[in-house]
């Protein structure tokens, strides 16, 4: 029986516990830092209408209040509400991540069917992967297997096809996206996450992966399923920061784990009449993000997931906002610089370069070839050269 020794890492009025898992042994390695990415936003004029994640059938982005569109969020993107299919926006997102020291994304994927908006999400995810390949970022899929009971309810698949459907989805991944040089692997096996517990049960996941001939490094949420190599963490507003300690305690039994770092949780669900909403997990002036990230780094894991890049509805975003500016990315920069040896993380001023590049693309202020060359310099972490090569005054 493993005895858990509690070590409190105090951050303001909050604490993270217990010790990192027992498998965390020196020498220290730099884990792959990944941001959980939502590809589900639809916005005019790229899309015909504003998507549910900006409106939640309650808010109207065509209305403006104090110079801001009315959206389903307590916070407002610094680039404004956007369409997830906009390749210029994806480029801006990935380059801001790179400037912060984030290595890639874990994309929320709803599979290959065209139920609801799943086909649009698949298209947008394809574009994210293409930009990851171009900008030298890592890419991982988090499969929302809650799609399976929804497909059954919609009579798109039979209940007896639950496992075979999931296996066919993953087999498609092995033939295509898992082959990408950008796709992150663990011991030569592609990493795959599954979100939530409303889809396949433990036995069904085991049956599913047996049907997939390619060995996969599978991680389940919060706890390790019997067929998984480990679990990945996720913020729990009902449990607060004690969830960090619960996950750490459980993860001591596993070979691998992907701990989570997160800034806050402050959803809009109650105001949108979607649900009663969840308790607020306080931002604590940035200490929640810095504390959870420092605690995750002490584990020496293969990867850390930042939850999230852009879930504006739940308020967990680290994407720059009108309210916080670049603060969350600056926190990540500082924490990673203090931990990583030989870091190529630039000064905080570089965080604004991708945003300025997006403005140039939107305004068509310079030739596309020139702007592509700037993006290439940033992808190569040549931040000073990119700034000195800027085609217009900033």
TrEMBL record:
<keyword id="KW-0735">Signal-anchor</keyword>
<keyword id="KW-0472">Membrane</keyword>
<keyword id="KW-1133">Transmembrane helix</keyword>
<dbReference type="Pfam" id="PF16317">
    <property type="entry name" value="Glyco_hydro_99"/>
</dbReference>
<dbReference type="GO" id="GO:0004559">
    <property type="term" value="F:alpha-mannosidase activity"/>
</dbReference>
<protein>
    <recommendedName>
        <fullName>Glycosyl hydrolase family 71</fullName>
    </recommendedName>
</protein>
<feature type="signal peptide">
    <location>
        <begin position="1"/>
        <end position="24"/>
    </location>
</feature>
<dbReference type="InterPro" id="IPR026071">
    <property type="entry name" value="Glyco_Hydrolase_99"/>
</dbReference>
<keyword id="KW-0812">Transmembrane</keyword>
<keyword id="KW-0732">Signal</keyword>
<keyword id="KW-0333">Golgi apparatus</keyword>
<keyword id="KW-0378">Hydrolase</keyword>
């Amino acid at each position: 029986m493993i005895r858990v020794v509690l070590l409190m890492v105090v951050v303001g009025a909050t604490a993270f516990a217990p010790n990192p898992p027992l498998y965390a042994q020196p020498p220290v390695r730099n884990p792959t830092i990944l941001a959980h990415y939502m590809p589900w936003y639809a916005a005019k004029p790229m899309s015909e209408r504003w998507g549910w994640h900006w409106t939640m059938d309650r808010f109207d982005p065509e209305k403006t209040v104090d110079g801001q569109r009315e959206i389903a969020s307590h916070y407002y993107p610094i680039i404004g509400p956007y369409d997830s299919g906009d390749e210029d926006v994806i480029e801006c997102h990935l380059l801001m991540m790179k400037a912060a020291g984030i290595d890639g994304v874990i994309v929320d994927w709803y599979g290959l069917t065209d139920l609801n908006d799943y086909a649009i999400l698949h298209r947008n995810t394809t574009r994210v992967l293409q930009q990851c390949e171009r900008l030298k970022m890592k890419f991982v899929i988090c499969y929302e297997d809650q799609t399976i009971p929804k497909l059954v309810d919609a009579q798109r698949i039979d209940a007896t096809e639950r496992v075979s459907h999931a296996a066919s989805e993953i087999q498609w991944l092995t033939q295509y996206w898992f082959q990408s040089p950008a796709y992150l692997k663990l011991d030569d096996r592609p990493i795959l996450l599954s979100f939530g517990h409303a889809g396949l049960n433990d036995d069904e996941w085991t049956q599913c992966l047996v049907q997939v001939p390619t060995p996969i490094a599978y991680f389940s949420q919060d706890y390790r399923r019997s067929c998984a190599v480990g679990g990945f963490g996720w913020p729990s507003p009902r449990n607060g920061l004690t969830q960090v300690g619960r996950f750490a305690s459980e993860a001591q039994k596993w070979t691998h784990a992907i701990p989570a770092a997160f800034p806050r949780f402050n959803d809009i669900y109650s105001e949108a009449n979607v649900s009663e909403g969840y308790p607020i997990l306080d931002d604590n002036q940035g200490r929640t993000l810095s504390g959870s990230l420092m605690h995750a780094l002490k584990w020496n894991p293969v990867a850390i997931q930042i939850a999230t890049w852009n879930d504006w509805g739940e308020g967990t975003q680290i994407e720059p906002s009108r309210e916080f500016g670049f603060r969350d990315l600056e926190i990540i920069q500082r924490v990673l610089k203090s931990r990583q040896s030989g870091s190529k993380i630039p000064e905080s001023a570089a965080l604004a370069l991708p945003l300025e590049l997006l403005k140039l693309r939107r305004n068509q202020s310079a030739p596309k070839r020139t702007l592509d060359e700037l993006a290439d310099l940033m992808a190569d972490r040549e931040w000073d050269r990119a700034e000195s090569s800027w085609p217009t005054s900033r």
